[in-house]
Amino acid sequence: FRHFVTLYISLWNLVGIQAFSQSENDVPVVDSSRQQVPLVVGGVEFSDDDIENMEKMSTLFGAVFYTHLLSPGDIGAREAWEGVSREIWALANYASEVPVLALSVAMCLYNYFWWGPHSLEPNTEAGRTAAELMYVAVRHAGCHDPALPPVDYFILQCNLRWRYTLMLAGEVGRHLAIHNRDILGSAIMFGRLSGFFHELGQLGHSGLIHGVSSHEVNFNADYYPASVKKQGPVWRNPLQDLPVASFLEAHYHIIRAELDAILAAGTTFETMNEQTRNAETQFGPRGDDWQTAYMFRKGQVIPEVCVHAPRTCELLRSRPEVANCTSGGSGAGFLRMAPGGRLKPHFGNAPRLSVHLGLIVPDGEIHMNVGSDSVRWQEGKVIVFDDTFIHQVVHNGVAPRYVMNMWMCHPCDPDDGKAFGEGVPDHCQGPEGMIPALGLHRLSRD
């Protein structure tokens, strides 16, 4: 834990900052004459490579956040987190003057400060600042330049920079308008969103399918644009277009019975969540809003969970979409959302597809927005959706909601997640995506 406390202390020694703020309203002063001096945070020196900086800063903040999440009673962990929570605003101010840090700080604001402290509501100032810094990162990398070669566009992760810029601006504007009734603030954010969207639309490799709405941004379009265009955010005919959908519905009663047995055993689900959870960002406003019990990851069975649901695991093992899918973002298992819970707007990892089988769906307002679509789960029914679109969840129901989740290899992938001799479906036929066309490897955002 000493390393995390070192991070907390060293943030007070940011090179070039004359005075540190205690809140976002008390802005520190930056000495521009010293900006070329290396910046050291938490014993880590940052460089002129903003993607490398993003990875370093995410590691530092993530370590403090995750330690605090897992040790809520640890005073040192709490103080370290409270410290970096205050000082992120000094970093944000510094990054606005030093663009090589803009990407890092924008992602930290989004990853760890999207939700207000002790609140179910987004921190709109954090979101707004993240949007503006992400746009600084767009221009810093030259992602706005139509002459930037396509291969450089993807190597510099311009697709990520632009899509997060649009998501952040759009979701902050939406919240200000609908929930805060802040007409002026939302108009400003929607104006920024309109400008960003227009600028992105001028690029030949924007990834926009129709070019009419910021809700259409997604990451699967970089791989399989024809399928994305035909299917959209939520698939209209999942039982017809995806064989595993009807398979899951046919075996609903088996899967549901094993979940019921797990829940009847008391704390078993919480134990499975602890055994399979990853180090994570601030996904929901409360640490236990979203819990997982993964049975498979990257095609590999997780015995500690499968021992509690052996028949479900055997069913999943029989499906090539699970057992033969080795993609880094793939997996399958139970998901639980607590009443009152939220999942912030986010993108899933591409290329993949998400399949949900509703298991326990209580009464109340429970829905998921995916791109421009909104859906509600039904017990025994499957929802197939492209989680590389912006999506978020609201649960104002009366009891926990449970689904069987499958993050499967995209059906248009000719190799991964396939049975021997299996081809790709008809909806995949069309232009090749930019990433495979350029011969690039998958761009992981894990």
UniProtKB/TrEMBL annotation:
Presence of keyword Signal: yes
- The Aspartyl/asparaginy/proline hydroxylase domain sits at 249-411
Pfam families noted in UniProt: Asp_Arg_Hydrox
Per its UniProt record, what InterPro entries does this chain match?
Asp/Arg/Pro-Hydrxlase (IPR007803), Asp/Asn_beta-hydroxylase (IPR051821), IPNS-like_sf (IPR027443)
Q: Which GO terms describe its cellular component?
A: membrane
Task: Kindly give the SUPFAM superfamilies that the UniProt entry links to this protein.
Answer: Clavaminate synthase-like (SSF51197)
Keyword Signal found? yes
* One annotated GO molecular function: dioxygenase activity
Cite the entry's keywords alphabetically. Dioxygenase, Oxidoreductase, Signal
- Give the signal peptide, or none: 1-19
Q: What superkingdom heads the lineage?
A: Eukaryota
Q: PANTHER family, from UniProt?
A: ASPARTATE BETA-HYDROXYLASE DOMAIN CONTAINING 2 (PTHR46332:SF5), ASPARTATE BETA-HYDROXYLASE DOMAIN-CONTAINING PROTEIN 2 (PTHR46332)
Family, similarity comment: Belongs to the aspartyl/asparaginyl beta-hydroxylase family.
From the Swiss-Prot or TrEMBL record, give the protein name: Aspartyl/asparaginy/proline hydroxylase domain-containing protein
